[in-house]
Amino acid sequence: MTLPVDQQPGFRRRFHVLPSQRSVTSRLEDDVHRMAVTLEHDGERVTAVTALTERAPWNICPGAVAKLEADWLGVPLERQERALDKKANCTHLFDLAELALRHVHDAGETLYEIYVSDPVDGVNELLLRRNGEDRQHWQAKDDVVSSPEAAAGLPLIGLRSWITTLSGDARAEARMLQWAGLVAHGRLIPWETEKTLRALPGSCFASQPERYDQCERVGDRVDFSTEGARAPLGDIG
After folding, report:
1. Fewer CB atoms inside 10 A, N or C side of the chain?
2. CA angle 224, 229, 233 (to 5 degrees)
3. Could you tell me what percent of the chain has a pLDDT over 70?
4. Number of C-beta neighbours around residue 84 at 10 A
5. Residues paired with residue 62 on neighbouring β-strands, in sequence order
6. pTM across the whole model
7. 198-215 per-residue burial string, b: 16 or more CB within 10 A, e: under 16
8. Is the distance from CB of 185 to CB of 179 less than 8 angstroms?
9. What angle do CA 202, 206, 102 make, to 5 degrees?
10. Contact between residue 152 and residue 145 where contact means Cβ atoms under 8 Å apart
């Protein structure tokens, strides 16, 4: 019998969001990232932005902190999605800022847990939990979704048409799971080979034309699915 996805070898990613009266902090950790963003606000707009990159895959990633802080200062708390250029930023810090804003009025903390199993004969599972509740659970074969039925036949990288049919939390959580599924592909690349890679041109802050020639692979990769490993962000709270 196949083990549940959270017990199979694979990619692990966690987000932790902690709002307070005048600020909200969101944190991320996975195989190659450990980052945090804090947005302070006056109830209407972002009044200060602090970002921290503890672990990242590219040597240029830490420079994205200043870009995020400049772009998000003054942003309305009720802003429209995608009003800023995500690819000009570190995409992961940008997602953390969006996640923080989405939970800015919450009364308590939120924990998202994401599992993407390593493929077996091309088949794998993707699961997103929010505060212990399964919210999105997908299956795919050779990166083509087989369930849920509404997305069946679509490639993982091409789910936008389906995701836009969703609303509210379901849309946001589907985006989170899709993005994790794409990042999880890094597990299939041998570590020594991955060290020579560069970011996909134009895909993020580190890979913009003015920086691409200086973009180099750095950092560590942690397999949180190995026996005895701590959970991502397991040392928070």
Report:
1. N
2. 65
3. 96
4. 15
5. none
6. 0.93
7. ebeeeebbbbbeebeeeb
8. no
9. 85
10. yes
> What would the two tokens of residue 135 be?
């919210």
Best CA proximity match to 203, nearest among 215, 218, 194, 192: 215
Neighbouring C-beta atoms of residue 179, cutoff 10 Å: 16
Residues contacting 21, CB < 8 A, separation 6+: none
**Mean pLDDT, rounded, for 3-25:** 96
CB-based burial, 42-67: b 16+ in 10 Å, e otherwise: eeeebeebebebebbbbebbbebbeb
Q: How far is CA 176 from CA 70, 116, 170, 171, 196, in A?
A: 24, 12, 10, 9, 27
Residue listed under structure tokens 């004969």:
121
SS3 labels along the chain = CCCCHHHCCEEEEEEEEEECCCEEEEEEEECCCEEEEEEEECCCEEEEEEEEEEECCECCHHHHHHHHHHHHCCCECCCCCCCCCHHHCCHHHHHHHHHHHHCCCCCCCEEEEEEEECCECCEEEEEEEECCEEEEEEEEECCEEEECHHHCCCEHHHCHHHHCCCCHHHHHHHHHHHHHHHHHHHHHCCHHHHCCCCCCCCCCHHHCCCCHHHCCECCCCCCCCCCCCCCCCCCCC
